[in-house]
Amino acid sequence: xxxxxxxxxxxAEKFYKKHDVKQQTFMEDLMLYIAKGYEALQKVKNLWxxxxxxxxxxxxxxxxxxxxxEEHIHNMHENTMTWxxxxxxxx
Length: 91
Known about the structure:
With 91 residues, the chain is mainly α.
């Protein structure tokens, strides 16, 4: 007789990889939400927000506060400079 578990019933969900399109889209949306001043960086620690996002897409990997500061803000700044600021200055 095989053992019964929750994961065997629902299936094991695999999280998105770091460079997956859906994960990247989520990170961009989260960073824009924070950058536009709607929420503080500590919002990523909020359990309710994590649960809300996980209900929409349980495969999303939620970043830590440290990851936001060290990786994602820097990437967003570079992308903004490359896509919007530098082309404006060059013209």
